[in-house]
Protein 1
Amino acid sequence: MGVEMGLWRAEGGKLSRIVTTPIGLEAQLEMYIESDPSILGEPLLVIGRQIPTAHGGFIDLLALDDSATVHVIELKRDKTPREVTAQALDYGSWVSTLSRSHIASIFENYKPDSVLEEAFAETFNETLPEEVNATQVFTIVAASVDAATERIVRFLNEDYGVPINVVFFRHFTDNGAVYLARTWLVEHESGTTGGSASGLRQTKTREPWNGADWYVSFGDGPEGRRWSDAAKYGFVSGGGGEWFSRTLKNLPIGARVFTCIPKVGYVGVGTVTGEAQRFDETMVTHEGELVPLKDLPLEGNYAREGDEDDNLAEWAVPIGWTAVVSRERGFWRPGMFANQNTAAKLRQQFTIEEVTKAFGIDE
């Protein structure tokens, strides 16, 4: 059954149907979506328009949602039923091969003065996930489709869980005002296309790790650990529960750490010089001598009730700092990597490049 939309003006007890104006609509829809992609039912970041594929043809629009799923958006225009669905899936098969760096390159060509990580953070108020383009969804945009296209899309979506759908738009004019109405072929929930994309997952989409760089979250606070101590005496620390100290113990000797104070920014880059130990057993080099960290004139408090239990104790890792700044000068740009774990592999090249540049570190 075809999808029909209508709009009526209510005046008193009388209804007057407002006429549609389909002429030229599909030519304008690409610009409408580009200017406000949320008209497709969820917040989206457009990352490219008229993107050439490796197999010929041009994808009308590519976009990311807040999970970094890639949306392939194709306008029906004058395509036949077989063309419109086959082309969307063909384009999707090519998109599925794109790595994170390819996606970033497409965006940079589309917005030369912007960086994907920053644009993502500004759009969704979230850090760009480590895995980008792990799944793809397909949206056909049309003023109308014929029965054959409807059958094909419903068959793929409802019977096989292929994340493909058709969104219909109609133009209405009323006394000089223009309105745009939208509906979906397959029932659409916000943030989904009505089908599962689990079968399209890729493993190559995570940004590669260089094997050396780590992120460390340093919870600086007036009643606990203090960044001024860590910067002066050469260490990072975490504790108060196994969850906080567990990942800290993963830091290998020789690793490079990028230390960030949550909600402040990056404050230090250095190299791990020793294994993680309980804070009260950690030794650091100070003024040319190896001394117990707990015996130094510390500003912070690293003891807590019950810390005779290793799982509750503060743990520390000695660091040879390459560059440090005060808490007040913490460096942050939208889209930079942050993580709730105390330590995590730092894969995001954007963060590595921005921090090393800001701290004057020669890569």
Protein 2
Amino acid sequence: MLHAMREDGGPGRVTLAQVAEEAGVSVSTVSKVLNGRQDVSPATRVKVEELLQNHAYQRTQRSSQEPALVEIVFHELESVWAMELIRGVQNVAKANQVSVVLTETGTRHAPGPDWISGVVQRRPLGVVLVFSSLPPAVKKQLRARSIPFVVIDPAGDSEPDVPSVGSANWSGGLVATRHLIELGHRRIAIITGPRDMLCSMARLDGYRSAMSMAGLEIDPELIAFGDFHVESGRTQAGRLLQGPDRPTAIFAGSDLQALGVLEAARLSGLRVPEDLSVVGYDDVPPARWSSPALTTVHQPLRQMAEEAVQMLLRLRTGERTATRLELTTNLVVRRSTAALVEGAARPAASGLARP
């Protein structure tokens, strides 16, 4: 069993030579692993990283010449949703005289396989990751290199050992649906997000709970899954609005999907909110400028990012911090919802016209 030693051989930190000896490899091989080099076999890399993590190896203090960086990592940068998170990261970074590095990589579940080598070379103060989960290998590699990380996790399904910031998705779905019920709507549809994201299912569960508590039947035909983007909202709403027994209200799992619903209503000859009430989710800036202005569930995206960076900076200094922080959501009522007039004729959708 190795005792912790400083890199200069004194007590307090393990040395690279000691790690190399226990792993049965050269010091240069350990150095390659630390620096994210790819010319190391997977088995050797795993063995060295486990030893580095087990012995709490810490790299030498960063040079005063090195820039202080915080890295934020997305799987896509196409939406205004991402921009709100970037603004939140920038707010805290600027206040702490830290620069921000922006990276796009991987899928919504994990960063791409080549990302880790780049982040090791950049040596940021820490990393904010916008993913629904983080593979064990990525966590191990970051910890082995003493790079703290926090997940901004609107999906709500991060692992217990991963510091994360999220929001109350179930209550968001509940309050959105309850608002429509209080306006007199009974045929309420939902277009949520992907089936494999917990935030999608949590918002759907909130919808189901509101319907059940009101004693309303839940029609499986009024439940649709999208991808949180405009086109999926337009496509799914186009299907839902066909036929004589269409819904009088639609709860969309994102504001972008809600904008797609507004377009589908327009193409179907329906007026919002006179013929169809629409509720979105997120409260991104375009929601207040849509026509009509969108009633939506405010998810505090900017604050979530700010809290994530604050948590990251505390981890960097060794301060104890909560593993999971969940922020509240609330309903913002604008002009896309209205009371259902009893006995009023409901025009049937005429079918989607070509854009």
